[in-house]
């Protein structure tokens, strides 16, 4: 039997289905949550609310990551790059599931602004992909660098006794470093400084709103 080749319409339908699931917070992890064996902790109401705000920010970051990889895979110039972005997106889905699960445990919710964040990230990923695979990979490298720094800051901000959230964030940080290194090894181009600065500003806007909403 001949192998089936996905058409542009197939990819469009699959992308739309994935977008709806991501925005709704529906994700399945291929790995157990790092919080599985972490001890439960007694936290005050304020500490619980703070942990939830930080984990909501992290969940939004993963919504954006899914949007980026979805758009970059769809508009990649080569099948090799398309496969690379699809694989990275599947690995990042673990983070989406872990953070959503943790928010539920903290009796909180995913961001109400997820549709806006997804749309904005999808647009950025499309622009990066149109500029070519090297630029698109460079965008991944810079994104992962900023996300890793952001996650490291959360390890400082989370309540010390919240071992479950801390375990998730630490594993996410490790994974982001690996994804950035993989993109670099594939021939990523340097992202221009103005673009790096604009990405940092957008990241700050996202974190400051998602913490509350």
From TrEMBL:
Molecular function per GO: 3-demethoxyubiquinol 3-hydroxylase activity; metal ion binding
Q: Per the record, GO CC terms?
A: plasma membrane
Q: Which GO terms describe its biological process?
A: ubiquinone biosynthetic process
Identify the residues that bind Fe cation 2: 92, 144, 176, 179
**Names of required cofactors:** Fe cation
Q: Which reaction does it catalyse?
A: a 5-methoxy-2-methyl-3-(all-trans-polyprenyl)benzene-1,4-diol + AH2 + O2 = a 3-demethylubiquinol + A + H2O
**Which InterPro entries does the entry link to?**
COQ7_proteobact (IPR047809), Ferritin-like (IPR012347), Ferritin-like_SF (IPR009078), Ubq_synth_Coq7 (IPR011566)
The pathway is:
Cofactor biosynthesis; ubiquinone biosynthesis
Which EC class, in a word? oxidoreductase
Enumerate the subcellular locations listed in this protein's record, separating them with semicolons: Cell membrane
What EC number is given for this enzyme?
1.14.99.60
| CDD domains in alphabetical order | DMQH
| Cofactor note as given | Binds 2 iron ions per subunit.
Q: Which Pfam families match?
A: COQ7 (PF03232)
Q: Which residues bind Fe cation 1?
A: 62, 92, 95, 176
Q: Which UniProt keywords apply?
A: Cell membrane, Iron, Membrane, Metal-binding, Monooxygenase, Oxidoreductase, Ubiquinone biosynthesis
Q: Which SUPFAM superfamilies match?
A: Ferritin-like
Q: How does it sit in the membrane?
A: Peripheral membrane protein
The signal peptide stretch is: none
- According to its UniProt record, which protein family does this protein belong to? Belongs to the COQ7 family.
HAMAP family with a match to the protein in the record = COQ7
Its biological function?
Catalyzes the hydroxylation of 2-nonaprenyl-3-methyl-6-methoxy-1,4-benzoquinol during ubiquinone biosynthesis.
Protein name per its UniProtKB record: 3-demethoxyubiquinol 3-hydroxylase
What is the species of this protein? Duganella vulcania
Q: Its encoding gene is what?
A: coq7
